[in-house]
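Annotated sample (chain length 484).
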Amino acid sequence: MKASIGLIGLAVMGENLVLNMEKHGFTVAVYNRTVKHVDHFVQTRGKGKNIIPAHSLKELVDSVERPRKIMMMIKAGDPVDQMIQNLLPLMDKGDVIIDGGNSNFQDTERRVREVEAQGLLYIGTGVSGGEEGALNGPSIMPGGSREAWPLVQPILQGIAAKVNGSFPCCDWIGAGGAGHFVKMVHNGIEYGDMQLICEIYDIMRKYLGMDCAAMGDVFNGWNTGSLGSYLIEITGQILKYKDTDGEYLVNRILDTAGQKGTGKWTGMNALNESVPLTLITESVFARCLSSEKDERIENAKLFPGPAIRQPGPEEKEKVLSDLHDALYAAKIISYAQGFELIQKAGSTYNWNLNLGNIAMLWRGGCIIRSVFLEKIRDAYANNAGLKNLIMDPYFCRILNDAHNGLRKTVAAAAVSGIPVPSLSAALSWFDGVRSEKLPANLLQAQRDYFGAHTYERTDAPRGQFFHTDWTGHGGNTASTTYNV
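Output written by the structure step:
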């Protein structure tokens, strides 16, 4: 019997994807560089299942039906390149190599070209949902060689999460590195969502003086309404979780956050595409700042900051209502920034992306799944040329209703000395994009003064540039006009 697919890499995600595939009727051949993991897996979690162990790459490839489909769940970077080079001599034209890790989309762009040049097909796919999602149904975002999609579609859509019991959270994204790019932005939005929730939590405990049980109740309540999402749900559970001695565990966790790079990549690519991805980028910087624990301890002694005046009981419910609106408004802004980046990159790389479909791929299985993703799908279905998500009538109405809560929350945090970098970035971005006039006229005058970079005038057509000899001795020569 031949396997439907082969999988390389039996770490947490790899093992659970194998079990998911087997559960859905697919026979899976498995291989791991540390071969003893193969035997351990088939003798424990994989025992008695349609799983074929392989102790070499050749044995793995030979175990899979043609055209072969080999999926890698290994560390991104050089290990992926090395594995591809090891696989190519063992595979035939028309076979498919799939990278399911968090690879940089530019690496995937290159690998698609290199593998296709050898007559094979290549897919770079994002897989979101963590351990639980991999086992029970993740969100899957494949891109690369279009000819490969019909070959892998039954497997990938078969194991993906299903919305309303039928719609698979997996569909073809686009050519080249489109799948990994969309997964990268997904992770960036995830960074933003998590940081926003943490800032609201910080205000609750410091400004409102709430304990973990009370905060958990609030998040549990919010999860039943417009803020309903996986991250809100688990936040309520985390806040109520007690250690072995009955104390709340979250209070004993050191306040230093890690990261694996996809949030940083999102910010870097936003700069390359000239997209003001301010909220998500601030969430990355917030993790960087959290890692400077020793320095923060020293600075806390040097700068005690303002005293916090906690509101009275009669004000508390109003503050909680403002916090709800602040989180809702900022969350919309985070997604608006993320989808603007996807839209710009799709145009740059000619990926022909369907933004509404992408939103629905995140509706189930993944970390950022939430109830309002269907509203994003509707927004792009109603207006395929939508310039920015906040301009959709539904999201426009919510922001008009909720931005005052965001203002009051940011103001209260600032007066109390509570850092809210992502909430503040959301408000600044919102006020920026709704400003008919910004102070960039002065900035452009400064650039022309010291560098003769020219400027446009309000009383002349767009695209016509001028230079002024501001000092009287600078001459009329202007620098070349360009934007990076």
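Annotation: The mean pLDDT is 95.
Annotation: The beta strands are 5-8, 28-31, 51-53, 69-72, 96-99, 121-128, 139-144, 162-163, 167-168, 174-175.
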